[in-house]
């Protein structure tokens, strides 16, 4: 159920959990935010400083996500450098605030690896059930589209649907 590098839930766990969380949000008529984020220029970090540095960058972001999330939030490693947070009962402004906290904390952080001080940033996209997707696939696609919009707009930012 957990990713070995970050200790976060992995994608297979997410695939089942998101269906449950959407059903619960529908039944309780409460919002459900999905935040998709990834590390900017992650390939460059791996290429320039090695995979150990990339692993440390992943761990740094995972630590920030864990420390600033509620017990009811579900934080998962979705891809190589992609993460998804499923956050129940959170308004749009609260979701943006949360993603901005993550972005700012990572931006201030320095990853140290083999005497290299590496600065890392993230790009994030936010979507809400049911406004931006009626099922898990639609919701993830919308958040992913917003994440790409953040990247196209210069990276190190949060975009909401």
From TrEMBL:
SUPFAM superfamilies: Nucleotide cyclase (SSF55073). InterPro entries: Diguanylate_Cyclase, GGDEF_dom, Nucleotide_cyclase, Rev_trsase/Diguanyl_cyclase. It comes from the Bacteria. Its EC number is 2.7.7.65. Residues 30-161 form the GGDEF domain. It is an enzyme of class 2 (transferase). This is diguanylate cyclase. It comes from Undibacterium amnicola.
